Amino acid sequence: MRGPALMTVMASLALAACETQTVPGGPIALCSAQSGLTVRAARLQASGATGPVAATAAEAEAINACLERAGAPALAREVTVAVPTPEREGANVLSGGDAYRGSSLVEVTIAPVPSAPAPYVKPAAGKLPLPTSYPLLPGDAELWQTLTRAEQERALLFLQDGSSIRASLRTD
Questions:
Q1: CB of 107 within 8 A of CB of 49?
Q2: Is the pLDDT of residue 16 over 50?
Q3: C-beta of residue 165 within 8 angstroms of C-beta of residue 155
Q4: Contact 91, 100 (CB under 8 A)
Q5: What's the pTM?
Q6: 38 and 60 fall within a common domain
Q7: Of 2, 3, 61, 12, nearest in space to 32 by CA
Q8: According to the UniProt entry, where is the signal peptide (predicted)?
Q9: d(CA 59, CA 56)
Q10: Which carries the bigger pLDDT value, residue 80 or residue 10?
Q11: Residues 98 and 137 in one domain
């Protein structure tokens, strides 16, 4: 009686492991595979290419969307990571990764998808346009419209020196 009960428990554990299996390399590897980047990188590597394979804009967009769906943050900077090639899929979960045969890693570079440029807002008469060529903080576009021309000119000098619009409003 112990044998069948033990087999039932082991089978239940094996099924649970299959349901919670994680992809080696984490969410970036999973999302790279889903975007098609991993397969493309593996093909390029097999054809003799060396070095990291850069993600296309469409692949990077798909990877970021996948990461956000998985609850991970989207990529904020360019990263180069090693991701497992498709040969790793279907390997024995209970091996802990030790029994993979023929698997390999490919390096891929994923850059963040550039955000859409802010729409141009025509400045009010006698005012400067929003200086979008400088890094702005959230709420700066709305604040800029409320400034006088003199305040905008002062803020522009602060932005040119690497400071912020809000810092230009502080008095010494």
A1: no
A2: no
A3: yes
A4: yes
A5: 0.47
A6: yes
A7: 61
A8: 1-16
A9: 5
A10: 80
A11: no
pLDDT of the residue at 117: 67
Q: How far apart are CA 117 and CA 132, in angstroms?
A: 9
Domain count, the chain: 2
Residues 22 and 42 in one domain: yes
Give Cβ neighbours of residue 41 (< 8 Å, ≥ 6 apart): 53, 83, 85, 106, 107, 108
Question: What six digits make up the tokens of 1?
Answer: 């009686």
**Are residues 52 and 79 in contact, defined by beta-carbon separation less than 8 angstroms?**
no
Q: Report the amino acid identity of residue 134.
A: Y
CA distance 56 to 62: 10
Boundaries of domain holding 39:
7-110
Phi, psi values for residue 53, rounded to 5°:
-100, 125
Confidence band, pLDDT 50/70/90 cuts, at residue 147: very high
Residue 1 lies inside a defined structural domain of this protein: no
User: Is residue 94 in a domain?
Assistant: yes
85 vs 127, which has greater pLDDT? 127
